[in-house]
Amino acid sequence: MSLNPEELRYTKEHEWVHLQGETARIGITEYAAEQLGDVVHVELPEQNAEFEQGEAFGSVESVKSVSDVYLPLTGRVTEVNATLADNPGIINEDPYGEGWIVNLQLKDPSKLEGLMSHDDYQKFLSEEA
Amino acid sequence: MSDLKRTPLFEWHKAQGARLIDFGGWEMPVQYQGVIPEHQTVREHVGLFDVSHMGEFYIKGDKAKDFLNRITTNDASKLYNGRCQYTVMCQPDGGVVDDLIISQISEDCYLAVVNASNIQKDFDWMQKNNQEGVELTNVSEQTALLAIQGPKAEALLNDFFGTNFSDLKTYCFTTANWNGDELTVSRTGYTGEDGFEVMLPAKVTSDFVKALSEKGAAYGLKPIGLGARDTLRLEACYSLYGHEITDQISPLEANLAWVVKLDAGDFIGREALLAQKEQGVPRKIVGLQMIDSGIPREGYGLFLNGEQVGHVTSGTHSPLLKKPIALALVQSGINLDQELELDVRGKMKKCLTVKTPFYKRPKGEK
Predict the structure, then answer these.
(1) Looking at CA atoms only, how far is residue B36 from chain A in angstroms?
(2) Are B84 and B103 in contact (CB under 8 A)?
């Protein structure tokens, strides 16, 4: 089931974050997926890999281009979406649902407040355009 | 993007929902519906490309053929009226100035179609090397070029012009009348499919495309952007200037020996290319296929036992084969029957060299 975009947090690099307890699910936004075009490959991190906030943990590629995906918050990868290896296009079809990329154990979940709300992200998109 | 040059179809591209990008100083459509569906349209039906950014020169005079023979590597004496020839111009050291198509209109009049990014460089090069005193005219600004490519291209153009192009052979051209204007139609292209290129005056292009689109709907005609143009040519392994051929790469290194006629008189670069042929090329363009996951992209380093032996010149995800494909420039003298490693953004990924092209249309089809 897809998550409700209004309940997610966002980064300027067009990732979304959904927090459940201490676990955060990360994906890329519908806008990012549209800009990229048909996703044909996703480079996923290793399980248990640790990343600092702002570090690239993988990439999402279309026929034409490569986009790094950055970790919005410091944490450890607890699960990767293995279905993306065979079906990367699911990111275009369902960016807030089946197209999630990783689950993270966050070092400091309170830092989530520093990310944009849905309204802030919409405003950011209209300014960018 | 106000400083960018635009083709006569700029407004039409916008109306078709194109995503426009800066392509070598031109504001051009990179895609409309998406690279993958557009690629499939050309392999299965027929697609329309605006390639009006490309350059067109006329070369006229009694000694025009002598000039062409001396400035290009192919044998221009094989040309006849209505015949086109793919060729390259080289520097004295064998590096490529540009690749181009030359068409013979008459014994003393030829058309050269060159890459958009090289128009001024090529024209300057021709003028500088014009020992035969030919008349050179750059008509790029007044001239539009459209490519109509795919298995349905011939049926569409037959219907549209009310003529029969089935006798027009590959790499030949003819003229066709449309609304009182004489257009040049050649059986050439850059997609690996059967197809045509139509050269026409810039001022009638917009009307022409509207009429062609109406007729084309029944044939599945769709506009195709530069994104799919690149994936189509890469599957067919056609060289792209700035990638497989540059002023630092010779045509022999780029598998273009078939357009280098060392026994057909002297030409600029012949001595260097003859030496390369005798001594063996120092590097060569090869096809790559991945063993590990990942998409090879231009510039990625290719390694053998930790030492760099080459780099990717063009790479993408093949929409037809649904897997990564790439061309790479690799040092000669290396045993290529073994696994190599590609540096994909800091991760070493296993790959293999493979035979090219990646795609060839089935025999029996034009």
Answers:
(1) 7
(2) yes
